[in-house]
Amino acid sequence: MNRGLLLALMAASAPIAIATASEQDAEELSKQLQNPVASMISVPIQSNFQFRGGPDRDGFSSTSNIQPVIPVSLNQDWNLIVRTILPVIHRESYGPADGVGLGDTTQSFFFTPKTPKNGFVWGIGPAFMWPTATSDRFGSGKWGAGPTALMLVQDGAWTVGGLANHIWSYAGPEGRKDVSATFLQPFLSYSLGQGLSLSLNTEASYDWIARQWTVPINVGVGQVFKLGNQAMSAGLGFQYYAVRPTEGPRWGVRATLTFLLPEK
Question: Measured between alpha carbons, how far apart are the two ends of the chain, in Å?
Fold first, then answer.
């Protein structure tokens, strides 16, 4: 599909999703959605369309992250939240890195109290990297693991917090580069009511092997709505890469569709 047509369809679809929002519980679902360790099954499909990358600065790439979040009740006080990210990657005009395929999967396990205190939520646990990439172009080929943690506060219409992890490789082909990477995601969101919210975050990563930061800044708008009995959320945002590798993209557009399955 032509890139211009794809972006036009994304822009055209956003008002339709917003117009369908009229459910009384939209605001509560929106607040839960801002909490990455909420006791709610959610399946976000996040599509990132990125521009002006590659060796000649004319490259286009897209990464669609399939990100199911599944809570598991351990007892009356604690939940285990399993968050998985499986990327589907497409690149054009990146030279040898061109192509379509799966990237490596990141899976995090957060142990978190079921009941927040004064709006404060926290979670901690291990994170794992699985070598699911279908090509050397899209993944490290390594098995990895490390710690992950999250903290946030929800106060009225505001949600403020941060998520972090660090992953080291521990096994995999000897000929492939080792992995030692830090991920930092501070985030801020504000609820406008009726399930509509604004968000701002960075998704900074630091490659300790290459000594390279990548820092995209993301701003977006999201809307909770229902199609029949199915609760969903749609979001649209803009990305600007404040720091990037030499052949990294300069800017991008993010579209997200999330299926929500709240606890009864």
Answer: 40
| CA 67 to the chain's CA centroid | 7
Strand partners, 80: 72, 111
pLDDT tens digits, residue range 109-132? Answer: 999 999 988 889 999 999 999 999
pLDDT of residue 264: 57
Using a 10 angstrom Cβ sphere, with 0-12 exposed, 13-18 middle and 19 or more buried, the burial of residue 264 is exposed
Neighbouring residues of 140: CB distance < 8 A, sequence distance ≥ 6: 104, 129, 131, 133, 169, 172, 176, 177, 179
* Tens-digit pLDDT profile for residues 130-182: 999 999 999 999 999 999 999 999 999 999 999 999 999 999 999 999 999 99
Tell me the backbone φ, ψ of residue 257, rounded to 5 degrees: -125, 125
What's the mean per-residue pLDDT of the chain?
A: 89
Assign 3 to helix, strand or coil. Answer: helix
> 205-209: long-range contacts (C-beta < 8 A, 24 or more apart)?
205/181, 206/181, 206/182, 207/180, 207/181, 208/180, 208/181, 208/182, 209/177, 209/178, 209/179, 209/180
